[in-house]
Amino acid sequence: MTAPRNSALFGIGEHAPRAAKIAALGLGIALFASGCGGDSGDSDAGGGGTESGGTETTSAAGASLLACPEEEGGEGEEQGEKGDPAAVPASETTSPEPLKLGSLLPTTGTLAFLGPPEIAGTQLAVNEINEAGGVLGQDVSITQRDSGDTTTDIATQSVTDLLSQDVSAIVGAASSGVSKTVINQITGAGVVQFSPANTSPEFTDWDDNGLYWRTAPSDVLQGRTLGTYISTCGAQTVGMITLNDSYGTGLQSNIQETIEAAGGQVVANEMFNTGDSQFSSQVDAIAAAEPDAVVLISFDEAKSIVPLLVAKGIDPSTVFMVDGNTSDYSADLDPGTLEGAQGTIPGPFTGSGFQDALATVDPNLNSLAYAGEAYDAVNLIALASEAAGSVEGTDIATELESVSKDGTKCFDFAGCVTLLREGEDIDYDGISGPVAFDENGDPTEAAIGIYRYDADNVPQPYRSEVGQL
Fold first, then answer.
1. Is there a domain that residue 81 lies in?
2. What CA–CA distance (Å, rounded) separates 86 from 438?
3. Which of 61, 153, 189, 325 is the most exposed place for a label (fewest CB within 10 A)?
4. CATH number of residue 382's parent domain
5. Cα–Cα distances in angstroms (integers) from residue 335 to residues 4, 80, 114, in the given order
6. pLDDT per residue over 53-86, tens digit each?
7. Are residues 267 and 332 in the same domain?
8. CA 337 to chain centre
9. How far is it, in rounded angstroms, from Cα 391 to Cα 189?
10. What 8-state DSSP symbol labels residue 149?
11. Which helix (H) or strand (E) is 297 found in, with range?
12. Could you give the CA distance from residue 241 to residue 47 in angstroms, rounded to a whole number?
């Protein structure tokens, strides 16, 4: 991708926010706290695969005028004070072996656009940790490996390679579908798997021996947030195009349940599979259903689907996207194709301080998506290793929850490890938010950023919603 003039996912503020603003949504915050269940919502009501015969259709979505809440922008609150790497006291406990980390992040496949910011986030954290003297008297190392996507076996090969190097933790994968293919391989070896971007609810109850953790919130939260937001915009009927995997169906069911709880109706849900390249039948069915709003749950298949929707007369301002496809399309789509469309990405808006730090690792970044979550994952692993006095994966896992809450607040490795070495309990609040893990390795509070596309097909920070699980 070509870097945009104003990067889509670089926030305005000088520092990452500690808590996003709570929007005054008409439906109230109660929807965030309500229970969520039901099936994948593969409803064929009103759509159900109906073909339009290839005739151009002007949908109700194209004619409707949604009234979404006003823009708040991307400026956040000040981050807490960072520690001084030069003032970190020496560790009284030393390890004969260094802490070795691996990453399993996408440089190929349908989520390859997420790889660069996540990889930069992990490397920045390692650089800062080593600047502060490392973990247990040793520098930390990280080996970066590609995860690919679910159409390949790259992830399994990468994990096998990383485990052969005796890593204590693996940061990744980005894709929930990919993580499902390797989670048993990783956790079965006694190694921590820590994803910065997995959002499938299935991992909450996975039999992982307490070794699976994530800084990205479950799609229960993203789905409720987006469903609430769409309803608040005034949409009564919604059409959905959904990737048929654990990520897609999990998000879809939570969005649908929230929309229906608000009195709306999902009039069509059209599925497609990873690897599909033809989407005309799904788009025809959505256009025929004439929804007020269209939700597109995909990865980079959006490059093919969005132009088909617009060609059917669907107004892009009625299109809502998710973290898997809310990215910069300035080099992929004609100007104005996505103007007014909106999308969600878990995590607060990050500011120029973090952006500048990431640029020291990768000056060509044009997205920050999940960079903060990846950065926080490495810091939390390192702090848990310090707290445990060990570089063993199983020992690190026992301390991850404790370093994330119920102690003295601190905001980076240098500040937090100083407190640990002075005998204090710590509560790490990172770039991605407060974190505060529960016993399942899930963050219990998170912000969801809402981005709106400009005329160059670049998503710009629009407003932020925050919720708890």
1. no
2. 33
3. 153
4. 3.40.50.2300
5. 13, 39, 23
6. 333 434 344 444 799 999 987 654 446 789 999 9
7. yes
8. 24
9. 14
10. -
11. strand 293-297
12. 11
